[in-house]
Predict the structure.
Amino acid sequence: MRLIKVKGPTVREALARVRSRFGPGALVLEVRRRGDEIEALVAAETELSADVRTAAARGAIGAIQSIGSPAGALARGEDPAVRTLRISLERGGWLSSVARDLAAGAAGRRDVLIALRDTVRSRVRTVDLAGSREPVVLIGAEGSGKSTAAAMLAAHAALSLARPVLLLELGPAARPNPLLAACARLLGGRHAVAASAGEAARFVATSGDALVIVDLNGARPLLAGEPELLRRLTSAIGAAHLILAAAAESPLLLQAQIRALGAPLLAGVGLTRTDAAGGTLGACLSSLMEHGVQPAFFTSGTEIPQALAPATPESVAAFVLRSVTSRENQRVTLTGGHAAAQEIRNV
């Protein structure tokens, strides 16, 4: 990750230049005045491609359309549909490498949104947490929505699959969470608190056919040595599925956590608060695909259990399409995508 200074005559102009160069998911660390200019300090992995920067600088839908036009694409040796979709993905916050990979499936296709949907569907593996026979361990940074997601997952399993549930809080300083306790009581399940992996293992051993959902307190994914501790923990309580709960508004934090933990350790990632993500949803999904990590679920709001959507090929494709069509100019650019746009509205 690099620290880059972006300057402008006003705060508005400086931040507009940041968005133009690095996309809507850019992390602005500081904004300060330097003489007659405003300077924004940005933490970024990569810049958007020159095509996207040029289009953003023009600030017009027509600019994107001209870049994605058949004549412009053929002049650069790129299929027009591929180019149109790649640019739209990058404008939605997707990493250039992932955008190129996904857009390749649109070659020769008339409807690029349908092509994107089909490509995503073919690559997603379902992570069936509600039907799992092994414990599901949720970890995440403070404020990630981890405990709320645990309650949502428990309600989904109990109400949709009629499964008994055990909501287990684990950590040296764990205290009963009123939300999880109330959720377990209303669902007719069990709620318990364990201070150690050994104590948690005893609860798991007596859980029978219940879905065991462990809300792990105190995990610090970015610290050295934490992955090995998590491996021992998941092994001690029964070959558990480790799920990282991450707020969809924080793509850089998500990427840092995946890199620190290592993709093989994670069974999946649950993206929380997708309703507040705005332009960062594409950056989060892009990070998952870059590292080969499967999405496990999405949450939107706090209503239990309706706010949780399990990750299926169809739901992941819908969220990918939503990240691309979130702006009016993207909808105009991706002509012919009416069927996919209708599918998004129906999700």
About this structure: The first helix runs from residue 11 to 22. Residues 136-311 form a domain with the Rossmann fold fold (CATH 3.40.50.300).
